[in-house]
Amino acid sequence: MAWEAVIGLECHVQLKTRSKMFCGCPNTFGAPPNTNVCPVCLGLPGALPRANERAIEFALRLGLALGCRIAPESVFARKNYFYPDMPKNYQVTQYDRPLCEGGELTIVLEGGPEAVRLTRIHCEEDAGKSFHPERHGDRRLSRVDFNRAGVPLLELVTEPVLESPEACAAFLTALRRLVRWLGISDGDMEKGQLRCDANVSIRPAGATTLGTKTELKNLNTIKGVERGVAAEIARQTALVTEGGRVSQATLLYDADRDRLAIMRSKEHAHDYRYFPEPDLPMLRVSEPRIAALRAAAPELPWAREARFRDVLGLTPYDAGVLTQSRELSDYLEELIALGVSAKSASNWVSSQLLRYEGSAWREVSDLRSRFAPPKAFATLISRVESVSVTATAAKGMLEEVMLRGADPNTLFVTGGTPAISGDAKLRPLVRAVMEENASVVAQVLAGEERPFGFLVGQVMKKSGGQAVPQEVQKLLREELAARARS
Amino acid sequence: MTAVETWQKSARAIAADVRAGRLTAAAAAAAGFEGPAARWEREVHAVLSTDADARARAAAKAPTSARLAGVPVLLKDNLCTVDHPTTCGSRILGHWRSPYDATVVRRLREVGAVVVGKGNMDEFAMGSSTEFSAFGPTRNPYDLARVPGGSSGGPAAAVAYGLVPLALGSDTGGSVRQPAAFCGVLGLKPTYGRLSRYGLVAFGSSLDQVGIFARHVGDVAEAYEVLAGDDPFDASMREGVAPDVSTWDAGVKGLRFGWPANLWRAGVDGAIVTALETAAGHLERAGATRVPFEFLPGTFAVATYYLLATAEASSNLARFDGVRYGRRASADELTALYARTRGEGFGPEVRRRILLGTYALSAGYHDEFYLKAQRARTRIVREYAAAFARCDVMLMPATPTLAFALGEKTDDPLAMYLSDVFTIGANLAGIPGLSVPMGLAGGLPVGVQLLGPADAEPVLLRAARALEAEGRTGDMTKGYEREFAWPGKR
User: Fold this and answer.
1) Widest CA span of chain B, in angstroms?
2) What does the alpha-carbon distance between residue A140 and residue A254 come to, in Å, rounded to a whole number?
3) Spans in chain A with pLDDT lower than 50
4) Higher pLDDT, A390 or B398
5) With contacts defined as CB-CB under 8 Å, which chain B residues touch A88?
6) Rounded to the nearest 5°, which phi and psi values hold at A78?
7) Which residues fall within 8 angstroms of residue B16, CB to CB, at 6 or more apart?
8) Nearest-CA residue of chain A relative to B87?
């Protein structure tokens, strides 16, 4: 029998608000342990939470971008369970009345685009971080860092509609692009800013009911999600094929060894004893507030990608690459606004600037301020287009700026030897090369096309790289034709 | 006529003396300890922690031109303070000291009040007699064989015997009003959300309110004015400006007071019924109108209260686990650490209520208990609203009995819970309640209770003032020992 997988994802997005979800402590990564803490996020006796308005706004921005229904009234709830990194031994989250419901996120798979339906999005607080256990003589010691305790999280839950590990990876990639695009999270999985659990089940192909699901935790990278889900589908399929049954359980995926381990079975499932958080009032979102957020919403990545492709005429590949980040696509649009054609702007950005990503610049803001200020870079591109410098020379200048610290504002605008163009300058060079390579010329005249490129290269070399290649080719063809006639 | 001693004075009189330079804050703070406390405290045991140095330091810092300049205040030991331990009457907090002051404590200090120590209480405010304090019971100053009520028994007793003119407690189901009635002092539970809960160690968050003990209505009003008002650190504060209580002495002409006599037809001590009649007479003579009606705050109110309060408590008290602060039991693995720390650290009543609350929230019982109780609460809110459509305040008992004997109810939790029957309604409905002393019966204080709709504090205080003025002929600011027999040991 053939089996098909049904997967639902539960994603956690750490928000990059300045302060934590329920107190004023700084929300920063990497501070010395237990320094970003206060009575509230340490859960000291008597301390009370107050909701971070900015975090709510971030949640609303994501909800609106995904087409969710925004609840005019939603309720914070306590999820009760004991764990040393949970300061209050309950987590303030949302339960039966979340902020956002419904909505969808479109992913692109080999078979085409596919809308992944969402169940809900809600706000909650993160827990601290445990480090275990260290040996101290004959004692084992665990440490807890509460800097992360109370950091705002969004939990986003999909319907059980994903069908493959690849679809899961595509979903996370799309979600990461969106949260970065909206400026609500850096979405860095390595830093735990984007986390994911997967609910996996299998059923006979074509069936409409769902099989028993298992919950997969500890999926720390997009690759890890893909491989962990694949491993779990394989495990369940093997189990069922051998006549066994899948039982409800929580599993941990060990990415290093590509192995799954059962963390707890159904009998040990938690009873979280949810109830409305009495310390926080109902969360109310007014219609005018939603309308204002809608009006202020940016063009979304998929809309901009479509516009780049359909209106600006970029290739689907370039449109995709250039809308991976909002900053990069803004940069591209700025070049176009400065008069560069869409096609050459996209060529120069995707094939030249992106080459140096990581080696020279990391953020688009570095490009703007240091490596390729839009005005200077647009000037460089237009100099190439008006053949005042050659592309080769321009690329050389770019390399000078990227790797050797040259100043783009002077180099791009006035640098580079002027291109050599025009009959008067180029024809003597062409003739000279033909004299020096008589045997190659003979081959070309005999009908071989390949050595033609060699001759072009020789002319370019003689010009010190400054000749305009198109003109060289044209003159060479003319000279060869003349030779053939004679 | 002997001069009135400082410890006998009202909070306002002390503040006036300090502001005028007739008295230092240090002397005011020391007065109660050098006066009656020397005689009473060993037997009453109202105070859990105090020390002369801390009192002197606090007095030295107190602004001397402010409203409560130099007024000594005792705080129930579930209000966080930086200069005294905060134990909640429990062993589980060990020697924990709060790194911050509760908002109400900060406000008191800002207007010159001097925190002189922390008052005894039932562990985590769970109890009605202060017998569930881990540090031994407080005794009623009027009869040392009897309880002072609870859970704020320490602060109530301290105000009664003269240690301080003003004290703060907390009232989740009557924990200010009931001990006030047992100890013969005033006890105000404000409208939910009028006094900040930030720094009040939570018991039942949706029911808890900081409350005020004093011997004079004017002192209650003064303290309320200082304490009420918005606090950005407490998201459950009520919106809008706190009501103006400066009219506390404006009389009760035209006031309609509800008279739900069905409530005391049976099961209420005769002395209390007599006190209610006396109070009604006073109010009528002062120009108020009696509005008799039947009122059933639901026989289910006690059950509703004990489900919701314990459900919230089971979650609120989860943080006491020995991991970050307080007492930690030795154990070699996590579950044992939790079980031993909490098993050893919590007393029997707290354990009982955590179990009850955990049960009420558990899968399978959540709807039957917790949700049903929430619905019942909504109904109770409506019933009070309907009652207050007919009257401005309700006059009713604060307690069914006078102060009971130590040990009388400790083995019968249900009897203890039922003694809260007249006070829990105000907490469920979020409305203010004020316990008013009506003199003594057989040497024991008798109190009555006034309830009003949300933000009716000014009305409650006006009515209480009418009773105070009628009941005690003479000038109240001269010290109340002239109007009442001073508590005597029996």
Assistant:
1) 70
2) 23
3) none
4) B398
5) 318-319
6) -100, 130
7) none
8) A45
Q: Which long-range contacts (CB under 8 A, 24 or more apart) does A30-35 make?
A: A31/A147, A33/A143, A33/A145, A33/A147, A34/A145, A34/A146, A34/A147, A35/A147
Give the one of A42, A46, A275 whose C-beta lies nearest to B324's C-beta.
A42
Distance from CA of A378 to the nearest CA of B (A): 51
Query: A351 in the Ramachandran plot: left (φ > 0), alpha (ψ -120 to 50) or beta?
Result: alpha
Q: What is the number of CB-based contacts under 8 A between chain A and chain B? A: 97
Q: Is B232 on the interface with A (CB under 8 A)?
A: yes
CA distance B188 to B211: 5
Residue of B nearest to A84 (CA): B323
For B166-208, the pLDDT digits (tens) are 999 999 999 999 999 999 999 999 999 999 999 999 999 999 9
> How far is A276 from chain B, CA to nearest CA, in Å?
10
Tokens 């500890």 map to which residue?
Answer: A218
- The CATH number assigned to the domain with range A423-485 reads 1.10.10.410
- Decide if A162 contacts A116 (C-beta within 8 A): yes
CA distance B331 to chain A (A): 11
Domains of chain B and any CATH numbers: 6-298+377-482 (3.90.1300.10)
A40 phi/psi in degrees, rounded to 5 = -70, -55
* CA gap B435, B447 in Å, rounded: 6
Segment A215-228, tens digit of pLDDT = 999 788 999 999 99
Residue in A48, A49, A273 closest to B362 by CB: A273
The one-letter code for the residue type at B354 is I
Residue A41 tokens, joined = 């996020």
pTM comes to: 0.91
Residue pointed to by tokens 């900060």: B106
B345, B337, B445: which is closest to B398 by C-alpha? B445
Q: What tokens appear for A288 in the block?
A: 């005018």
CA A111, CA A391: separation in Å to the nearest integer? 38
Query: How many residues belong to chain A?
Result: 486
Give the residue numbers of B marked as catalytic. 76, 151, 175
Strand A152-158 with A112-125, pairing: antiparallel
Rg, Å, chain A Cα set: 30
Q: What is the pLDDT of residues B93-102, one digit of tens each?
A: 988 999 999 9
CA distances from B463 to A283, B282, B283, B288 (A): 38, 10, 7, 9
What pLDDT, in 10s, does the model give residues A343-381?
Answer: 999 999 999 999 999 999 999 999 999 999 999 999 999
Taking CB atoms and an 8 Å limit, are A89 and B370 in contact across chains?
no
**Whole-number percent of chain B with pLDDT over 90:** 86
Minimum Cα–Cα distance from B365: chain A residue: A273
Q: Which of A21, A44, A52, A79 best probes binding to B when mutated, by most B CB atoms within 10 angstroms?
A: A44
Cα separation values, B71 from B4, B68, B222, B223, Å:
16, 5, 12, 11
Choose, out of A81, A82, A97, the residue to mutate when testing the contact with B (most B CBs < 10 Å): A82
Q: Are the Cβ atoms of A278 and B86 closer than 8 angstroms?
A: no
Task: Suggest the residue from B81, B118, B324, B428 to mutate for an interface test with chain A (most A CBs closer than 10 A).
Answer: B324
Q: What is the CA radius of gyration of chain B?
A: 21
How far is B405 from chain A, CA to nearest CA, in Å? Answer: 32
Outline where A74-199 has alpha helix (H): 165-181
**Helices vs strands, H then E, count in chain B:** 16, 11
The vertex-B216 CA angle with B214 and B220, nearest 5°, equals 60
Q: Whose CA is closest to B406, among B44, B47, B126?
A: B44
Residue in B98, B319, B362 closest to A89 by CB: B319
B361 vs A91, A261, A276, B373, B417, CA distance in Å?
15, 31, 11, 11, 20
